[in-house]
Every structure is written in C-alpha cells, then in structure tokens.
Amino acid sequence: MRTAGSAFFVLFALMLGVVALPSAWLASNVVAEDGFVQLTAPLADDAKFTGTLAGALAEEATASVELPPGVANAVEPVVRDVAQGIAQLPDFDRAWQDTLRRSHGLTFGGQEQLDGDSGGPAVFTLDVAPLVGLVTAELGGQFGVDVPEPERTLVNIGGTDPFDLGERAETAADLWPALAIAAGVGAVLALVLARRRSTTLALLGLGILLTGGVLWIASGLVPGLANQVGDESAVADVFKAALAERAASSFQEWCLAALAAGILLLVAGVVGRLLSGSRR
C-alpha cells in the first residue's frame, strides 16, 4: 500500500510540475511587462524584421505628413530613407521599448483598442505609433514642419483570437505558484511513503528528466507551428516568426535547468541506493 501511494504521488508531482514550468515561464517572460520587454527587445537587432518594419513605418509616416499629392510623391523617397535608417536614430531604443510596453498593455494590461482600429481582438496587438512618431519627428526636423505622432498605429498578429489566448496565459501565469507548491508537496509525500526513499528519489529525477525532455522538444516545434498561421501584414508575419524563435529558445533554457535538476536527483537517488545496499 505504501509503495502504491508513493508511486501515485510521484506521478502527481510530475503531472503538476509539467504544467507549472511553462506557467512560470509565461508569468516571467510574457505576462510580466518587464520580462516581455526583455524577451522581445532583441528583435530590433533582427535585420529581416527591421527591414520589413521600415517599409510599414514609411507608409504610415507618409500618410501622417498630409502633403499635397505632387509634394508627397517627392517626399516619399526621403521618408523611406529615414525609415530604413530608423535603427540608427538616437531615440530608437526608447521608441522601441515604448512600442513594446504599449503593445503589452493592449494585449495583457486591460487597455482597450480604439473603435475601428481592428476587426476584432487579436492574439497579440503591436502598437508601432512611437516608431512612426520617431520617423515623422525626423522628417519634421528636415522640412521644418511639426508632424504630430499618431495616437495609435496597430498591427494585429496571429489573426483574430476566438479563444482569448492572452487571458488564458494570464490565468496560467497566476496558477504557477500553487502548481509548484502542490508538486513539491506531492514529491515530499512520495518520499515519506516510500519504502526505499533513494529509489523514489531516483524515479523523481528520471521523471523530471523525461518530462523536461518532452517539453524541450515540444517547444522546438513552436516556431514551425507559428509560421503556419498567416497574417494580413508582412510586419505581423516577421514579428511573429522572430518572437516564436526567441520564445522557444528562452523556454528551452528553462527546460535545461529542469533537466539538470532531474539529473541531480537521479544521481543522488542512485548513489543513495548503492550506499544503502553496501551497508547490508
């Protein structure tokens, strides 16, 4: 009976742990604003993304200037040159981080989109208005005119979201401490009930190794799955692909930490079993 109870709590701990790990990652890297900014800020160093983004910013900035058609045609090449070199502008890092924080607020912070901004809720909403404002400010300085920054310039990523994935991610993130504590309690109970605690410790380590390996492999599939979902704009497609790569790589680092913990428990259990056997 004790053996069966110990085995049950081993499985209980592993099942909760396999949910707690991605939930904790979501809480730290997606739902938390600072974690999200840290995860996504390096996307500005992706040449493919910034090149695609520059084209979209040029279109938005040209529309914001509101010049007569003949003048607009002459100004458009200048706008594109400014947009292509946006990453070299002094305030680019500030504008990019402002873009990310605004976008996070729209998706996770409860901020509402303006009416008519989109056809429906999206999986993620990118507000590039600070970047458009950076381009228009540079143009204003060159032409000696005052061009106001647009209030919002939204890019919906992932299409409409019938499942409200942002809210589900927040729910999962809120649950991770309870899941982790319950998994820890299950592991302790498994050891308390075990006839051979060293063997149970080794089984826990082996289970963590297996579940961590499965999560590591599954996370590697995320970029490919993300690319199968088409978006209406090239900016959304490139941003989604780059973000999926970053997210998968970040989560795999967490999986490696779980694998290391599994190895330690497995080795400790095996050593303990050998030592207990040598005393007989």
From TrEMBL:
<feature type="transmembrane region" description="Helical">
    <location>
        <begin position="175"/>
        <end position="194"/>
    </location>
</feature>
<protein>
    <submittedName>
        <fullName>Uncharacterized protein</fullName>
    </submittedName>
</protein>
<feature type="transmembrane region" description="Helical">
    <location>
        <begin position="256"/>
        <end position="275"/>
    </location>
</feature>
<feature type="transmembrane region" description="Helical">
    <location>
        <begin position="201"/>
        <end position="222"/>
    </location>
</feature>
<keyword id="KW-0472">Membrane</keyword>
<keyword id="KW-0812">Transmembrane</keyword>
<keyword id="KW-1133">Transmembrane helix</keyword>
